[in-house]
Amino acid sequence: MKSSIYLVDIDRPDTWTRYRPGLCDQCMANCCTMPVEVKLADLVRLALVDPFEAEHEAPKQIAKRLSKAGLIDHFNFRHEIFTLARRASGDCRFLDATTRRCTVYEQRPSTCRKHPQVSPRPGHCPYGARARSA
User: Fold this and answer.
1) Contacts of 59 by beta carbon, 8 Å cutoff, 6+ apart
2) Integer CA distances (angstroms), 124 to 10, 11, 21, 65, 127, in order
3) What average pLDDT values come out for the chain (134 residues) when binned by 10 residues?
4) Would you give the DSSP letter of residue 75?
């Protein structure tokens, strides 16, 4: 799948840019078009799951509720990993479409916190430059 922004090929990590500090400031957040796998603790931090529910409900039941609500696309039963649902554009549901910034940055999932150190190509990202203002 290609990102809708500047056609950065997120499925070909060999085309990605080596990450360097400050790179995100000029990027269109193409990494936020990739599937986001999360654990139950991430869902609690994002306030998609109540802490009481996380402690007393089976992950499978939580996954059923979240799937029915359109909040997740997939649940890996074996590893208890949830894949967050994305918008029709492919963007993460928490990405602001106008600013291309995360709306839940302080609560973002561990997967996002660790990117790009932990990714399909560690230390690299699917950088896509922002359009320059005229």
Assistant:
1) 40, 75, 77, 80
2) 11, 13, 12, 35, 8
3) 55 90 90 95 98 97 98 97 96 95 96 93 90 60
4) E
Largest Cα–Cα separation, the chain: 55
pTM of the predicted model as reported, rounded to 2 decimal places: 0.85
What are phi and psi for residue 19, nearest 5 degrees? Answer: -70, 140
Strand stretches in 1-134, DSSP E: 17-18, 37-38, 72-76, 81-84, 124-125
Alpha-carbon span 31 to 3, nearest angstrom:
9
Candidates 31, 34, 32, 43; CA nearest to 82 is 43
Q: CA torsion angle for 45, 83, 122, 14 (degrees, to 10)?
A: -150
At residue 103, what are phi and psi to the nearest 5 degrees? -85, -10
